[in-house]
Amino acid sequence: MIDRSRGSPALMKFFREEFGGTLVSDFWGAYNAVVCALRQTCLVHLLRDLEHVEKYKTPGADWPAFAKGLRRLLGDAVRLWRRQDEYRRETYASRRGRIAARLETLRDTSWKCSQARRLVKRLQRHRHDLFTFLDQPGVPFDNNLAERAIRPAVIIRKNSYGNRSDQGADVQAILMSIFFTLKKRGYNPVQVIHHALTIYLTTGQLPPLPQKITADG
User: Fold this and answer.
1) Phi, psi of 167 (to 5 degrees)
2) Contact 51, 166 (CB under 8 A)
């Protein structure tokens, strides 16, 4: 969806019903308005925030300890996720519990650095959304998939110097949604759209989007 706003009103136009899946996003506050079953916030964005502080800010004396602790925690969580098939269920659950305990310790520590306290507030606000990927199969720990998915449409809009009208933005959003849905379902989008338009010219009705191609054909 292309909209003039990045705020929650724009998201409310998109998420018109409760989203029954896991919403994977960065920490942009507008996403808090989305009603969904589960959330996973992007750990890569959190690590980038640490780098931003160290490059452009002047953090306090206890910042190195905070940043080191958070980096280690996130790194250990990702390593546990990648090696989960190597552990017995009891071992994995124990290590998962230790990840949660370390996060709690990091949040409960009285940090003097203002930048550390700022990020602690974020950790507290999203305490249930940081490690969903450790508990839910198929959930990534970053939102790179979403960013890669919208990148081609963004490049098209940039190269064409933007959408000249609201109607043009709506048309591009619809076409890109159909195109990439077909592609993800395993079809050649150009062929399917050509076939659909042929049927439309004959019958006056568009056929439904084809279902995802399965391994059984």
Assistant:
1) -65, -40
2) no
